[in-house]
Amino acid sequence: MRRRDLLTGLVATTAAGALPTAGLSTPFTNDETNALATITPVPSASWLAAADTLISSLKTAGVWQTLDLFYCFAAPSSTACTYNWVNMTSGRLTANGNLTYSANACVASDGSTGYFTTTFDVNSNKAQDGNAEYGFFTLNECTTDNISPFQTAGGKHYMALQANSTGAAIANLFAALNTSAEASFSSLWGSTVGHWVIQQNDTTAQLQAFVDGSSLGTSTQTHSADSGAVQLLKSASGSYTTRQVAFVHYGSKLTAPQQLALSKALYAFLTAMDVRPMAGTPGLSTGPTNVAPYKHCATFSGTGYPISPSFPAPAGSFQGRASAYPYAMIKVNDPNYNSIIRLEAHAGDRPSFDRTTITRVQINTANLVAIPWQTTCDLAFSFFIENGTVFDTGFCDLANMHDQTRGVNCGPTHAIDPATGNFLVWYYVNGTHYNIYPVVTSAPCAKGVWHHVRTTYRLDDSPNGFCQAWFDGVQVLNATGIRFAASTGAPFWWNITGLYQGVTGAGPTAVWYANLEFDISGTQPFASRISNPLPVPPLT
């Protein structure tokens, strides 16, 4: 049956009122999108186009074929939220109590009455005991409850995850899926935001957790098949969640590449809906205020910075004023990009070890990562300084290196010249600063736009040491044939992303970092980033 005939047949056999027929127009690529085009009120062409792209992406990855249920709450109307995209005649949601709909973004319960019911039973179609997964995408830090959006009447499909009101890392994620006992998974970030999935890999009840397309590990629990209908936002015991939910899905298990493809597609759809990172207003106590997948993580400590194959997961810890949560550090874990982090510091924001004029927030690797002497390093990153940022009159350092023996900021240090607002890279050898005090070479650095950096250097004595740096495709430092290190033989650590100012304690300052890459293999793999930087998210 051709697409139009298939859709016509679908409409003809649907119970009256279950599938409105108004608004059908030129067919999209996918039959499922054409069915969505019949909803009343009729979704916009741009929303339908984004839905069509999402469905196509999931079909290409082999994900769509595994799904029983797919609900999009980043929808234009409350009616559109209730449809199961996989099969419009099955699994439609019934709304109960008080629910808040944010158009093209999310749905949230009032925490006491609002939830959805279905007549779709678990383990009844593609998802079966021993071969099942469920997941959801949430957009807020939920500190009031640990109830997952996906639940069942039988009570054996759930995920317990609750954020700490200070931003401290969440110690454990508890979950069940066709099990009588709950699995426990560690959580690196103190955040409930993002795309969370629990998967049952086999009938021994090996469960696997994923966040934003990356595995958190496996745990085998006592097998016990669940039964009953799917329900959302309310547990079998009658507890509710207040999470802002953008998506919920349920189906058979996925491969690791499919999990990543699913997360990428969901993030891409939300970006198309403008549910994405946006530049904020420096100085607020909240950080950016738009609805977006912001992970607020002010007291993070651990690993979780995918950078490059030769240096895949350096350990780091937050350094700043802990009570600056939630604005101090925000991570956006969109797997379509790499390492999107926003740092903001206000006057007085500093760790306890700093003098009173310092303003600092950074991810520090001291005593956790040592870059050996006589190592050739290569790094690349992009950064964006928000409009409204106020620089200190003394110095403003961004990503920088420290000598682990003498404990000094010895470079390469990427910095802003307070006098001009220009970008520069400086270094320090034997008590002497180079390219700072005074600045010799720098480049204009506008606020409100992305800038791209590539720096390569070798920790070594003369004539083998060097440091070269490019900014927006133009070389801004070319120091060769030198000793590059504060002291011979000293290993280095890295302030992975930094915002470090001094003298007057100025602020507020807000900087985004993206696509952080670091390599110590000696092959200098990021030369192409000079003219072809990685894509960055739109922050307008």
What can you tell me about this protein's structure?
- It is a single chain.
- This protein is mainly beta and 540 residues long.
- It has 5 helices and 32 strands.
- The strands form 6 sheets. Strands 17, 18, 21, 23, 24, 25, 26, 27 and 31 form a 9-stranded antiparallel β-sheet that branches. It has an 8-stranded antiparallel β-sheet with strand order 16-19-20-32-22-28-29-30, with no helix packed on it. Strands 1-15-6-11-12-13 form a 6-stranded antiparallel β-sheet, covered by helices on one side.
- A hairpin with a 7-residue loop joins strand 19 and strand 20.
- The longest helix is centred in the middle third of the chain and has 17 residues.
- It is elongated.
What topology does this entry show?
Blueprint: H1 3-12, H2 31-36, H3 45-60, E1 67-72, H4 78-81, E2 94-96, E3 99-102, E4 106-109, E5 115-121, E6 132-138, E7 150-152, E8 157-160, E9 173-177, E10 183-185, E11 194-200, E12 206-211, E13 214-220, E14 229-232, E15 245-251, H5 256-272, E16 295-296, E17 301-303, E18 315-319, E19 329-332, E20 340-345, E21 359-364, E22 376-385, E23 395-397, E24 400-403, E25 413-416, E26 423-429, E27 432-434, E28 450-458, E29 460-471, E30 474-484, E31 492-502, E32 509-519
Antiparallel strand pairs: 1-15, 2-5, 3-4, 5-14, 6-11, 6-15, 7-14, 8-9, 9-10, 11-12, 12-13, 16-19, 17-18, 18-21, 19-20, 20-32, 21-31, 22-28, 22-32, 23-25, 23-31, 24-31, 25-26, 26-27, 28-29, 29-30
